[in-house]
């Protein structure tokens, strides 16, 4: 049997080099990004410090466990349950797994890729002039040599293919997949922050509703006393029925307000239970909340600039810009020749028994060069699309930065306003309390009526209600500011496996405007 080892034809290095040099300048020009990443200035938030922070040293960023600062164990447990059961977080984890699998899949398809296999094929070949010919290994073999036109071609082989990444195509694709994988991780951190902020805000609203109900019940007791006194005076003919009926109307309004607050409490409980993933019954079983106040702290130094690495939504947007840049790099590399080195070896025979013969061994090895000569139109369209996608990614990044700065500015502005209102409202509460004390003293000495005392108490309750509402609003704004500052996220401390590539800076923007585009 003819030896089946067929060495590959030699490749002329000079010819390949000439083709490569001829194509080296074939990347089309005119494909450049038109949008630039935005960097906030150092004074972007100047003049927006909250009251109590002026003149203080620069503060720290929010701690990752900022929820615990509220000092409510029940709230801590609710947040932990929400982290465990939230469908949004489960979906975020699934997206991380998908991105990681895509990265591993691509890695397994590039570089050195091995293969092995075997086959046995039974066939009957047609005769021509009494002789059946079969082509094996590039050679026509007369089957009559084996006295049987029925053959069973068999093979056992192993081989490899190695992609030589001369132009960085595979490296660019790997960078892009890494960026998308890391963006999915950061998205999960953003989902955790959004969930915690929403749950804490709702929990504080529940606490506020309980406080409002306490004041309404106190107000109702005073209203009941006024109503009873006025009805008695009207029955005795001391006063007409106008005041008594007016008091009855106000008492009815209080009863309606109490019913509305009770509804708010129950709805908040139901929503909290839903957010924990354990159903409404979990929320309805809650005890009365007792969250504390978040401690005021000076704003961090270099707030506008450092915010870029402290907000997960900004970091994720930046990673997607990096992925878009990597796609452009890969599209540029597609215009250059593709060089693969492949080899295969094994046993090849016309019958299974022939595999056991030493002459059955054969194989080949050699390079393969693919020249994108006739694919230029498709490659140009792909490059144009990737550059446009880079523009889109940068625009979305800029939008995220603008919205982040706007959120911080809004929280600081509203906090400053609420701080001023709180100071004034505290004066109003103190004044209302003095009126109650004076009315009590006058009534005790017989100079005033009990109705005046109760009316003064109603006024005090109204002022305290406004104070509680302002305090609740301030606490909500503090939670919102923590959210605006990233909620303790720090890209440099992301849980393992950490972001391994250059995650804190954009790739050099001249990647999109270098000489290959000129």
TrEMBL record:
PROSITE patterns in alphabetical order: PROKAR_LIPOPROTEIN
InterPro entries linked: MdtP/NodT-like (IPR010131), OMP_efflux (IPR003423)
UniProt entry tagged with the keyword Signal: yes
Annotated keywords: Lipoprotein, Membrane, Palmitate, Signal, Transmembrane, Transmembrane beta strand
GO molecular function: efflux transmembrane transporter activity
PANTHER family with a match to the protein in the record: MULTIDRUG RESISTANCE OUTER MEMBRANE PROTEIN MDTP-RELATED, OUTER MEMBRANE CATION EFFLUX PROTEIN
Name of the protein: Efflux transporter outer membrane subunit
Organism: Burkholderia gladioli
């Amino acid at each position: 049997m003819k030896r089946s080892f067929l060495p590959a034809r030699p490749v002329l290095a000079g010819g390949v080099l000439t083709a490569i040099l001829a194509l080296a300048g074939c990347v089309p020009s005119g494909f450049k990004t038109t949008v630039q990443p935005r960097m906030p200035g150092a004074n972007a938030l100047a003049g927006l410090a909250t009251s109590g922070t002026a003149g203080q040293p620069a503060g720290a960023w929010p701690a990752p466990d900022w929820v615990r600062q509220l000092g409510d164990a029940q709230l801590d447990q609710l947040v932990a349950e929400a982290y465990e059961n939230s469908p949004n977080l489960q979906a975020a984890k699934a997206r991380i797994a998908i991105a990681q699998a895509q990265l591993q899949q691509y890695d397994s398809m590039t570089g050195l890729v091995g293969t092995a296999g075997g086959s046995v094929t039974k066939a009957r070949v047609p005769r021509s002039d009494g002789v059946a010919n079969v082509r094996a290994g590039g050679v026509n073999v007369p089957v009559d040599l084996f006295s049987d036109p029925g053959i069973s071609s068999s093979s056992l082989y192993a081989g490899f293919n190695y992609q030589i990444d001369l132009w960085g195509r595979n490296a660019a694709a790997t960078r892009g997949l890494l960026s998308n994988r890391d963006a999915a991780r950061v998205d999960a951190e953003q989902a955790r922050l959004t969930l915690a902020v929403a749950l804490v805000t709702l929990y504080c609203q529940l606490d506020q509703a309980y406080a409002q109900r306490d004041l309404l019940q106190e107000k109702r007791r005073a209203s009941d006393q006024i109503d009873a006194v006025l009805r008695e005076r009207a029955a005795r003919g001391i006063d007409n029925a106008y005041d008594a009926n007016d008091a009855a109307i106000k008492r009815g309004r209080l009863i309606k307000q109490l019913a509305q607050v009770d509804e708010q409490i129950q709805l908040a409980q139901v929503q909290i239970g839903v957010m924990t993933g354990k159903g409404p019954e979990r929320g309805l079983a809650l005890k009365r909340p007792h969250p504390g106040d978040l401690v005021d702290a000076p704003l961090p130094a270099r707030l506008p600039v450092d915010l870029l690495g402290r907000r997960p939504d900004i970091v994720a947007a930046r990673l997607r810009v990096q992925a878009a840049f990597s796609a452009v790099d890969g599209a540029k590399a597609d215009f250059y020749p593709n060089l693969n080195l492949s080899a295969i070896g094994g046993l090849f025979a016309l019958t299974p028994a022939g595999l056991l013969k030493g002459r059955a061994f054969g194989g080949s090895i050699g390079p393969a060069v693919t020249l994108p000569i006739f694919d230029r139109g498709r490659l140009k369209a792909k490059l144009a699309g990737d550059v446009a996608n880079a523009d889109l990614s940068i625009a979305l990044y800029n939008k995220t930065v603008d919205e982040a700065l706007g959120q911080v500015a809004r929280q600081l502005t509203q906090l400053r306003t609420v701080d001023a209102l709180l100071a004034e409202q505290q004066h109003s509460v103190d004044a209302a309390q003095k009126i109650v004390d004076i009315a009590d003293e006058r009534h005790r000495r017989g100079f005033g009526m009990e109705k005046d005392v109760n009316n003064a108490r109603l006024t005090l309750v109204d002022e305290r209600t406004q104070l509680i509402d302002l305090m609740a609003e301030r606490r909500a704004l503090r939670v919102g500011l923590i959210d605006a500052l990233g909620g303790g996220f720090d890209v440099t401390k992301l849980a393992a496996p950490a972001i391994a590539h250059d995650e804190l800076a954009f790739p050099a923007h001249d990647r999109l405007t270098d000489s290959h585009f000129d």
